[in-house]
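Final report, Chapter 2: Outcomes

The project's central promise was a pipeline that accepts a single protein chain and returns its three-dimensional structure in a standardized token representation, suitable for archiving and comparison. That pipeline is now operational. To close this chapter, we reproduce one record exactly as it appears in the project archive, with the input sequence first and the structure output second.
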Amino acid sequence: MSELPAWVALLTPLVLAIVGFALSRQLNRNSELIRLRVEYYQALLPDLNTLMCYMTFIGTWVDHSPTEIIALKRSIDTTAHSALPLYSPEVAQAYDQFMDVCFEPFGAWGSDALIQSGPYPRRRYWRREDQAWSNDWDDMFTKRDTEAITGEELKSIRLAYDSLVARLVDDLKVTKARTQYTTSEVTLNAVPDREDIPGWVPDAQDRQSPGWENVNPFHSTTEDETPNV
């Protein structure tokens, strides 16, 4: 077998060095991308989880006012719109789907999105000592007091949330332990099918009052009563 030309022998180490350098740069870029994705994941998940809990009446839902949830939406949107370019299109699609089941799109110019739920159960079990329930909060929801919040609606919110979390984790491609890229604040346990959360049921006297359909009654509960939601 004839020997390789001298110039080939001289170029081989140079070619290998260039290829190695290119691969190293690519690996570094991939590592940096994953690092940024993990950081955004850690920033987004606690807030997304808080929103899911509020919308599905689990965990800390009773601790948050409607104004705080709208402010939370703005904060999540700000972080997400910075993060989404670093993720796959599937993540952006899952994010939009989750937010769509939580909020009704903006209406009039300058108005906030509406919470895709009802005020009745939240007002009924409001327990914050630092702040009374405001009448204005009732208009921040899409449902009237008499409308139930169906189990299917609650299930669709949880499924959209789980799908978003799954898409985010897929993009992380993590091999580290879960505790290294998430926090104990994130609710990940599956929940069973939910029953409807009923709205206000007017009695015969209520129905005799003109315009009773638009009334938002302030119900009081005894300390022995607990939400079955």
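Archive annotation: The radius of gyration is 26 Å.
This record, like all others produced under the grant, will remain available to the consortium after the project formally closes.
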